[in-house]
Structure formats: C-alpha cells, structure tokens
Amino acid sequence: MGKTYSPLRYPGGKSSTYPMVSSIIKGTFTEPCRYYEPYAGGGGLALALLFSEDVKEIHLNDLDKSIWSLWDAMLNNTDEFIKLINKTPITIDEWHIQKEIQSNRHKYDNLQLAFSTFFLNRTNRSGIILKAGVIGGLLQLNEKYPLHCRFNKVDLIQKIKKIASFKSKINLYNMDAMAFLRELDTKTVHENCFFIDPPYFEKGASLYTNFYEKEDHAEIAKTIKSLQSKWMLTYDNAPEIKELYNDSFCYEFHLNYSLAKKRKGTELFVHKGMNIPDDFLNTFFERKV
C-alpha cells in the first residue's frame, strides 16, 4: 500500500499488510466488523481498514504511556496538538528538550508527553523514540538526511485532522495487552476481529519501551488461543514462536521493513476462524508451517 494514514513511523508497522488483511476480513465477515488491536503502535493498518470502510470501528490499545498519550492528543486535544506542531522549531536544541521530556515523562502532562513522542518519532532514526539517535547525527553533517527530513508539517497535520474526523469510530485504551484481550472478548464475539502484533521475539528489547521476555510470549499465546473471537496474529519468524502456535493455522509471509535499510523479512501469520483465500499461498503467503 503506497499511502500511509498514520503520522507515526513505527518499527515493524503493518501498514503494508493492508491488501492481505483487508481481503481476509472481507472474505470472513459479511458486514464490517469491530476491529481490535492490543498493540496499536502507529495504528497504520487499523486506520487504513477504517478509512476504507472494511471495518465499522476500531479499538486501539497501547500500554506505553507515550504512545497512548499521542493518540489521546490527536483524538481529544487536536487543536492544541496541531498548534504545537506549527509553532515548534525542528532543531537540535529542540530535540534535546523533547528528549528530556521523554526521559522524565512522569514530570509532564499528557499533551507535553504526546508532543515529545511525536517529535522524537519524526526525528529519530527508524522512528524509535528512546533507543535511537537523531536523524543526521547530533552535528547534522549529513546534508542528504537532515533532522527535519521526515517532518513535513503540512502533510502530518492533514493526517492528524483526518484521524480526528473519525473520532466517533476510534476507541482508545491504555491497558495491559492480556487484560485488553480478555475484557474485549466478552461481547458480540461473532462481530469481532482481533489483529495481534506483539513485540518482536528476537529484537524486541532494542525496539520497544515495553518489550516481552520469553515467558511473556508464552503467556500471551495462552491468552490469544483462549479467545472466542476470530483473530489474526503476526510475529517475527522464530522457532520458539512456531512452537507456541504449533496447534494453530500458521503461515510464513514476506513483509517489507523500513528499519535503517530496506529489506524483506519473513514473518509468521497465525489465525483462528478467518477465511484464507486459496490463492494466498501463491500471492501473500510463502508456505504453510
């Protein structure tokens, strides 16, 4: 999918899976469903599904207070958030200010934290908020990739305004993922679709503020497999993950990444209750595991 709807750059974001996920959802549900993501992150896939009317509403959850505060600001404090974008200079001095806010986020209100998250996401390498350096380096010697090269204010503000215009169909949560899955699986299960994209098994600690240990991956697997609702799951292709889901429908597929250098990576796609078209083994899926 060429166009992206999220103003966030997110490691391992699943916007590029839109054609695949959209086809599966439309082949499974006769009417637009309720769509849930326990690890929302940038939310690019969810927004694409909502804007295209493939789903009737989206439920986005993220335990990371920085990410949650950004979504909250876009939806519930839109005008003030846009004012901050317009008036804030994109400079190294400002980068240090926003870095300090992010490093001591308990000292700041939700709007300040939201803007810090947004600023660092647009100015750090690969969009990694805390664990990456600034684009172009602190001395800004790289003329090809200066600090502001991913910070087109006009384009980003347009995206935020569009998201805000769909506010009535976007539900936001700041919960532990397992609690979110259990709580939101209780009603209208025949209308529900969960898309679950947990932190990476192999490199999660280097990418996310809230990453999982091996035991956490096992625990979330138990919770997912107990869901009454239909669900889809994507993961990095690790032997340990294949073992956790060896009793489920599991496929390998290719995903285009944008972490530092362009490359294709093989991921796992697991599901329960979804209708997978026969030709997917020749288009999206590499092979069945």
From TrEMBL:
Keywords: Methyltransferase, S-adenosyl-L-methionine, Transferase. The keyword Zinc does not apply. One of its GO terms (molecular function) is site-specific DNA-methyltransferase (adenine-specific) activity. It comes from the Bacteria. GO terms for biological process: DNA restriction-modification system; methylation; mismatch repair. InterPro entries: M_m6A_EcoRV, MeTrfase_D12, SAM-dependent_MTases_sf. The keyword NAD does not apply. Transmembrane segments: none annotated. PANTHER family: DNA ADENINE METHYLASE, SITE-SPECIFIC DNA-METHYLTRANSFERASE (ADENINE-SPECIFIC). This is DNA-methyltransferase. It comes from Enterobacter bugandensis.
